[in-house]
Structure formats: structure tokens, C-alpha cells
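BUG: 3D viewer hangs when loading the predicted structure for this chain

Environment: internal workstation, default settings.
Expected: structure renders.
Actual: progress bar stalls at 90%.

Input used:
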Amino acid sequence: MKKVIRKALTLLTVYYAYMVEYRAELILWVLSGSLPIILMGVWIKASQGGQFGLSSIDFARYFLTVFVVRQISVVWVIFEFEKEVVEGKLSPKLLQPLDPVWHHVASHLSERVARIPFALILISLFFFLYPQSFWLPNLVQLILFTLAVSLAFILRFVIQYTFAMFAFWTERANAIETFWFLFYLFLSGLIAPLEVFPQPVREIVLFTPFPYLIDFPASILVGLPVDLARGFWSLLGWIFIFLGANRWLWRAGLKRYSGMGA
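C-alpha cells produced before the viewer hung:
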């Protein structure tokens, strides 16, 4: 157990040091996730003349929380893994007594820690410019949100890492992610809260993994009505479904892999 902890700390330390070397890029990465802040202005304006069941303050808090969720759950593993397979860089990692996925996990977790200060600055700036939207979630909301957003990150990572396995068969595995992202963009709650969707559409979307990636954790923190049991069970269910597919594709892909040194 001590060896596992030591290896994990070493990986996290190495990748954190690597991430902080590129502070300028980190700022750009944080800003690239500011689409919810832009959409917030659109929905606040729309709420003043329409009937959406949410006030302008609700929209402001929701999209700020979406921004936070995006900062925590953003994933890029498919692009790194595809490059490793295409260029043969996966081969040396296969010789190590460690599944290559843990390098990507450490990279993502370290990047989360490195981007926190920049995200906090933007959040503070938001509350300074729009103080009426400030609120303090209660302890239960914070605990449930932390659990939900952690599971959302795991699900997002497992989904994209599963798509990355197709790099063993095609040099453009990221095209699958691009296609998937179109549905993620419109159905996850990134563009609009699920609360404003027509009821029939909402019921269909809830049977997909998309709303649990953003809308579910964001709604918990803001205090919008959510089915907690369904949300958490859906997150766990989709994680296990994609994890099973990932392991099957990994074993099948390794048989095809013919990179240098494999």
C-alpha cells in the first residue's frame, strides 16, 4: 500500500511540476472554458422577457456553477493517447509495471490543482461585477456537489479514454470525440439548463449520460430540483458501462498494436 501511495505521489508531483511550467497556457485553458459565462448573459437577458421558470439570478448562479464544473471535468486524454499510438510513444510505457492510463490520470489531476488559482480569480471577478448573484450553498449541497462533480469527471474521462482506444484502428480517433461533443454541447446543460427543456425531451435526455456530466452537479449546488438517487445511480451505471467497454477495447487493441518496441 505504501508503494502505491509513493508511486501516486511521485506521478502527481512530476505532472504538477510539468503543468506549472506552462502558466500562460493554463490561463488560456481556463479562459477557453468561459463559454458558460458568455451564455449566462444571453439567458439572463432572455429571462427578463420570457417565462422559463428560472429568474435571472438563477441563470447567473447556474452558469457560474457550470463554469466551475467545466474547470473540474475537462478532459483531453484522447488527443494524448492518439498521439502516443500513432507515433509509437506508447511502446515504452507498456514496458513499465504500470498501466499507461495512470500517467493520464495524474496529468489531469495535477492540471486541476494548477488551474484552481486562475479559476478562483475569475469567480471572484464575477461576484465583484454581479454581487447580487452571490450565495453560500449549505454543507449538504457542497458534499453532494463534490461527489457528483468527481463522478462526472470520472465518467467524462472514461468515456473519452474509451473513444481513445479506437486509435488502435484509426489515426483519427479524435473525430469520434468531435462527433460526441456535439451532443455533449447541447444535451449536457452547457448551453441551457435541463430545467428549460420541454418535458418529453428532458425525459429522453435523462436516459443518456450527457445531463449527468454538467447539469446534475450544477443543479445540486445551485439548489435546482434534481432526482439525487437517479442522478448518482446513473453516473455509476454509465461509468461501469464505459469502463467495461474500455477494458475490452484495450485488450483487443493491444493485439493490433504494432508500434515500435511493442
